[in-house]
TrEMBL record:
Cofactor: pyridoxal 5'-phosphate
Entry protein name: Aspartate aminotransferase family protein
Keyword Transferase recorded: yes
Species name: Novosphingobium pituita
UniProt keyword annotation of Transferase present: yes
Alphabetical list of InterPro entries matching this protein: Aminotrans_3 (IPR005814), Aminotrans_3_PPA_site (IPR049704), PyrdxlP-dep_Trfase (IPR015424), PyrdxlP-dep_Trfase_major (IPR015421), PyrdxlP-dep_Trfase_small (IPR015422)
Family: Belongs to the class-III pyridoxal-phosphate-dependent aminotransferase family.
Signal peptide: none
Length: 462
């Protein structure tokens, strides 16, 4: 068995270049850098690489390690479940205890947040798979309702819904569409509700109305009878932490109801406390028909995602007598579900979501307003709960970018990493999404490190 601590890092980095293809990466850069940074262990909010550098994890892994690293109880639950029953499928009119219990637990949480319509849960392993499930389920639903012409999905530019063929097509990232000839037919993208980027200087209410109107205009242009669903992240995460203006989601919901269109909330990032509420739709006050969840569901300890579906959709499937011919080997994986249940226990027991809403979220917002917003390179510093972004601009008071855009973010990010903070660059913004267990002192470190990295970058950017 390989040792947990004494890895041969230079050898691993060579093997990484020789054999390992990391996700969403340039393999030329991987080679040029002599391999990936090998992260070997982590505790709380800190990850450590094989060369002994410790980094404050400002991204909770990839927006997912909500309860922080090093939770023995999650490891113990996984161990016990593996001994008892490591695997069984849900294809043969069979199920195992953990996914059934988790489905009921999620239905209870959703009932509190939503009013009881979202009572049925389909399990998958990733956010992408959950959105593929949404894609097939929605089209199946309309077909069974005798409205098979309702097949078009509306999404937003710069949305992220995953990396499989259907989920990347639902996403609105042009650079992802280029590879693989996406999007697949029947998916339309409309403007995103991005106040700093697309509504700069505009009254927020007027901007919310304009962004929602773009959806209605597209629906009318295509024909409302052809539209199956609208899908959106309550806050767009990978697009750059795009926080919509007040009123936007109510308007979107009203449009969906007006034309009988299903409303899908992609809560893969927002769910399980990120915004200081269990779900993003709760924060924004709308009621989706379908919800995709992943990441914080297990805090990333094991891969699991869940697609919550309304009573009406399941009633239609039941009335039809048809099978839903969709599912994965690992749908309802017992070990992943057991870990997710224990993760929900931690979120509840430690009141991590209440703490985000009342304490750490406002503390982060205040620190950003005080120490990042005034920086000469910062156009906007925004956050909601424990997710945030810092927009880097060439001229304060404007949203004009350095050298046409996209160059400043990676420079500042690299300075952050050199100073011991892991954050992500998305074009010319730095985004953050730390574990929900982050302390005030660590929030200070996060914010002060970004401020110092902006100072470091000043020369390169001037
Ligand atoms: N949806 C959203 C909102 C996401 O942020 C992500 C991943 O970041 C996904 C879906 C895809 O999830 P996964 O990477 O688990 O497939």
């Amino acid at each position: 068995m390989s040792s947990l601590r004494n890895h041969d890092i230079p050898a691993l980095r060579q093997l990484d270049v020789a054999h390992h293809l990391p996700a969403q990466s340039s393999y030329a850069l991987q080679q040029e850098l002599g391999g990936s940074r090998i992260i070997t262990h982590a505790k709380g909010c800190t990850v450590t690489d094989g060369e002994g550098h410790s980094l404050l994890d400002g991204m909770a892994g990839l927006w997912c390690v909500n309860v922080g690293y090093g939770r023995d109880e999650l490891a113990e639950v996984a161990y016990r479940q593996m001994l008892e029953l490591p695997y069984y499928n849900t294809f043969f009119r069979t199920a195992t205890p953990p996914p059934v219990e988790l489905a009921a637990r999620l239905a209870g949480l959703l009932a509190k947040a939503h009013g009881g319509e979202l009572q049925h849960i389909f399990f998958n392993s990733s956010g992408s798979e959950s959105n593929d499930t949404v894609f097939r389920l929605v089209r199946t639903y309309w077909m069974l309702k005798g409205q098979g012409d309702r097949s078009v999905f509306i999404s937003r530019h710069n949305a992220y819904h995953g990396s499989t063929v259907a989920s990347a097509s639902l996403g609105g990232m042009d650079f992802m569409h280029v590879q693989g000839g996406l999007p697949i037919p029947g998916i339309e993208h409309v403007m995103q509700p991005y106040p700093f980027g697309e509504g700069f200087g505009e009254d927020p209410e007027a901007f919310a109305a304009r962004a929602a109107q773009a959806i209605e205009d597209r629906i009318l242009a295509i024909g409302p009878e052809k539209i199956a669903a609208f899908i959106g992240e309550p806050v767009q995460g990978a697009g750059g932490v795009i926080i919509p203006p007040p009123g936007y989601w109510q308007k979107v919901e009203a449009i969906c109801r007006k034309y009988g269109i299903l409303l899908v909330a992609d809560e893969v990032i927002c769910g399980f406390g990120r915004l200081g509420s269990w779900f993003g739709f709760q924060h924004f006050g709308f009621t989706p028909d379908i919800v995709s969840m992943a990441k914080g569901l297990s805090s990333g300890y094991l891969p699991i995602s869940a697609t919550a579906v309304s009573r009406e959709i399941v009633a239609t499937l039941r009335a039809s007598g048809e099978e839903f011919v969709h599912g994965y080997t690992y749908s309802g994986h017992p070990v992943c579900a057991a870990v997710a249940l224990a993760n929900l226990d931690i979120l509840e027991r430690e009141d991590l979501i209440g703490r985000t809403a009342r304490d750490t979220g406002p503390y982060l917002a205040a620190a950003m307003a005080e120490r990042l917003a005034p920086h000469p390179l910062v156009g906007e510093a925004r956050s909601l709960g424990l997710i945030g972004a810092v927009e880097i601009v060439a001229e304060k008071g404007t949203n004009r970018r350095h050298g046409g855009g996209g160059k400043a973010g990676p420079i500042v990010r690299d300075h952050c990493i050199a100073r011991g903070l892991m954050v992500r660059a998305i074009r010319d913004s730095i985004v953050m999404s730390p574990p929900l267990v982050i302390t005030h002192a660590q929030i200070d470190q996060l914010v002060d490190t970004i401020a110092a990295a902006l100072d470091d970058a000043g020369e390169a950017l001037s």
